[in-house]
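testing teh design pipeline on a random one, pls ignore if ur not involved
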């Protein structure tokens, strides 16, 4: 329902504006094409929408033979719906009339670039126009999404976000880091050191970077032959960190321990020594990494341990190479945190995992682990919630409840790898093969609600920040991940990030910004 007390204005040449009465919005029917309208913001998909207006014309207007025409016209371009019409014979004489207008013009009213004005104008009948028109109410019923809607193309969409990282609500004392995962070794086409579009986007919107890969263990510590720095390779990671430093961008370092096979060094995968020797190697690994990256000064935090818990119900410690080499025990976790803190008193130390945000069995295990670590005086700063999410899963209530449990333990909460896939292969298969603007707006709302949930649950002093896992939809890790899991139907499409492959804004960016600014979350 439109607000009938504000936002209206006179339309058509010679109009004398509008007045707000107890009945609604009134205007004088002075000449052909004069009317009253209000703006519907860009992003509202009016194609096939139904606009229901309740109007009341004065007796002299009725007697003049005057007609009404509902208006839906795009600002700037002038494109419009002209098919709706309420002839004089259908209008009451100083009594209410309901006019229903279905927008049938194709390809014009789904505006993501300009606002659209909606209202009513007068058209003369047999006699010159006189009298007044009062619009009592306007209801816009949007059409459900249709698979035949225009394809997902936001190359010209402007989210009007000057800089995501600079947005803050008035109550924020300090802005938490807004980060992005990028790389200098993953793909030549998205190399942050050479791709100027990637650079421009990162520098404009983000205050923190995470390396998608190059700071994982196998790249940094591939050998364990000499127990000296000769076993390490920091070249690529250093270039990555240095680039950020020159731009005033901090680093969330990822990650000292992760079981994923492709980046576990062979010497850890096939540990041949004792568990005591392994834990000494844990100390060495952690100490060397923390010390090395302390030098640059912009490494603010580390994911010390990544994904050490299983997805089972109930969840348990993952039987990773590190768990096994620790003597079938999670002791490497405690050791790693303690070694990191001993090496550096200031750097923030996170435990990072996925599916912990849905407040289920894995969240329970996370809390069990935290309580155990805290009982052993383990210096853990916070919990990273990866948050590889979907439009439809998990619920905001569960996200809040899971984060609250961490807040209750006085730990920081950091969203470390946010993306919001439009397709959910676990619940809807590949039902969306062409994402419509409608999907883009649903994603905008979802991003907003996630960021809003974070702000609502995590008090300022415990906010570790929010990082999105990639720049554009072209560089998402999800499509190849889905393929590797056998989840693909051949058309692997997730569209999970804030920018288009052409480096244009998506509505999702606006949604993120709305939550940061304290605006309402809408799919308009
Ligand atoms: C992903 C990278 O983005 C991909 O390039 C790589 O092939 C696999 O790993 N959880 C994590 C990240 O903690 O390290 C993963 O990154 C995504 C899931």
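output:
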């Amino acid at each position: 329902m439109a607000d009938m007390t504000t936002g209206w204005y006179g339309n058509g040449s010679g109009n004398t504006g509008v007045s707000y009465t107890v009945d609604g919005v009134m205007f004088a029917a002075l000449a052909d094409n004069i009317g009253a309208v209000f703006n519907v913001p860009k992003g509202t998909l009016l194609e096939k929408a139904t606009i229901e207006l309740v109007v009341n014309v004065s007796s002299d207007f009725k007697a003049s033979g005057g007609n009404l025409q509902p208006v839906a016209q795009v600002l700037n371009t002038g494109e419009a719906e002209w098919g709706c019409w309420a002839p004089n014979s259908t209008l009451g004489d100083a009594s209410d009339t309901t006019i229903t207008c279905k927008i049938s013009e194709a390809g014009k009213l789904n505006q993501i670039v300009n606002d659209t004005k909606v209202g009513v104008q007068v058209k003369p009948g047999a006699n010159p126009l006189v009298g007044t028109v009062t619009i009592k109410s306007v209801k816009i019923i949007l059409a459900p999404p249709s698979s035949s809607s225009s394809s997902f193309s936001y190359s010209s969409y402007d989210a009007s976000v000057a800089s995501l990282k600079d947005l803050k609500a008035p109550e924020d004392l300090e802005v938490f880091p807004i980060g992005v995962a990028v790389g200098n070794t993953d793909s030549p086409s998205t190399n942050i050191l050479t791709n100027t579009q990637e650079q421009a986007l990162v520098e404009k919107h983000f205050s923190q970077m995470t390396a998608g890969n190059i700071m994982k263990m196998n790249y940094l510590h591939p050998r364990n032959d000499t127990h000296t720095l000769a076993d390490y390779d920091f070249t690529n990671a250093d270039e990555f960190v240095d680039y950020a430093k020159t731009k005033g961008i901090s680093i969330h370092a990822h990650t000292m321990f992760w079981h994923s096979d492709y980046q576990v060094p062979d010497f850890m995968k096939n540990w041949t020594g004792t568990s005591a020797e392994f834990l000494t190697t844990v100390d060495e690994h952690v100490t060397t990494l923390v010390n090395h990256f302390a030098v640059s000064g912009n490494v603010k935090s580390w994911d010390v341990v990544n994904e050490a818990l299983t997805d089972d119900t109930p969840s348990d410690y993952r039987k990773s190479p590190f768990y096994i080499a620790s003597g079938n025990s999670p002791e490497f976790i405690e050791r790693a945190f303690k070694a990191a803190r001993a090496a550096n008193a200031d750097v923030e130390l996170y435990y990072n995992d996925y599916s912990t945000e849905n407040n289920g069995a894995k969240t329970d295990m996370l809390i069990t682990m935290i309580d155990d670590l805290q009982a052993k005086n383990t210096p853990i700063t916070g919990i990273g919630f990866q948050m590889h999410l979907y439009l439809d899963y998990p619920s905001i209530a569960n996200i809040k409840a899971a984060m609250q449990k961490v807040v209750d333990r006085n730990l920081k909460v950091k969203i470390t790898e946010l993306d919001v896939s439009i397709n959910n292969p676990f619940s809807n298969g590949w039902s969306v093969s062409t994402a419509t603007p409608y999907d883009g707006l649903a994603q905008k709302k979802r991003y907003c609600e996630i960021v809003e949930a974070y702000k609502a649950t995590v008090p300022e002093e415990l906010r570790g920040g929010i990082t999105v896992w990639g720049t554009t939809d072209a560089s998402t890790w999800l499509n190849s991940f889905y393929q590797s899991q056998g989840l693909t139907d051949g058309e692997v499409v997730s569209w999970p990030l804030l920018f288009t492959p052409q480096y244009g804004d998506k509505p999702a960016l606006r949604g993120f910004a709305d939550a940061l600014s304290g605006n309402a979350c809408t799919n308009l």
